[in-house]
Design brief:
There is one protein chain. This protein is α+β, with helices and mostly antiparallel strands. The chain has one domain: tt1808, chain A. It has six helices and eleven strands.
């Protein structure tokens, strides 16, 4: 069976084998905006909207700025396709970061989740409502923390006992009010990206 790339903004495919999922990934290629997730035979493909992409980039930039201001080593691997055939799980976050385990993958371009740790933090932007619940996928892959942004609200989830529970603090940045990041962005939206990052760094110095 051959799968073709859909043209719609959001598509759900059922009864997709792992081999068909791999074929679809190869057909779609790396230079694309669409995000794909696979959960035990179900595939969802989403083509994000401009608002989605703005907050993906804005929050991702501020995570990097926060780590640098706090003098934390980090690695940002964007929308890497994280997958494990033995778990029938695959997902492409809007962004992801190694922070606590950065030293274990430093300089590595061949990360294999069957033997290497997953990203410490995954970022999901939910402007375009997702039909497929990605949390069980992340849970099977062992990602310890997810940030979910949805229309001005940032929710933090920690993996505990195989499921995600909402929390008010971040494992990666336990002493910083990361849930205030979206309101900071919106309050300074008209300042432009460069100015927002400069103001954020100044804010981190005052708060941290």
């Amino acid at each position: 069976m051959s799968l073709t790339i859909p043209k719609q903004e959001k598509v759900i495919l059922s009864n997709v084998s792992w081999q068909e999922f791999e074929h679809l990934l190869a057909e779609m290629g790396d230079t694309r905006a669409a995000r794909i997730a696979y959960d035990r035979g179900i595939v969802e493909i989403i083509k994000p909207l401009p608002e989605h992409e703005y907050f993906k980039e804005a929050i991702g930039d501020l995570v990097k700025d926060l780590a640098e201001e706090l003098e934390l080593d980090y690695e940002s691997l964007g929308s890497t396709t994280w997958k494990r055939q033995d778990l029938l799980a695959g997902v492409e976050p809007d962004n992801c970061f190694y922070i606590q385990n950065e030293s274990l993958i430093r300089g590595r371009l061949d990360i294999d989740l069957s033997q290497d740790p997953p990203p410490d933090l995954a970022l999901e932007i939910d402007i375009t409502s997702k039909s497929l619940n990605r949390q069980p996928i992340y849970a099977r892959l062992g990602v310890p923390e997810i940030w979910c942004y949805d229309r001005g609200v940032l929710k933090i989830y920690h993996l505990q006992g195989g499921t995600y529970l909402e929390d008010n603090t971040s494992l990666a940045f336990p002493n910083f009010p990361v849930k205030s990041i979206p309101s900071f962005i919106r309050e300074n939206l008209s300042a432009g990206r460069r100015r927002i990052r400069k103001l954020f760094r100044e804010w981190v110095k005052r708060v941290a």
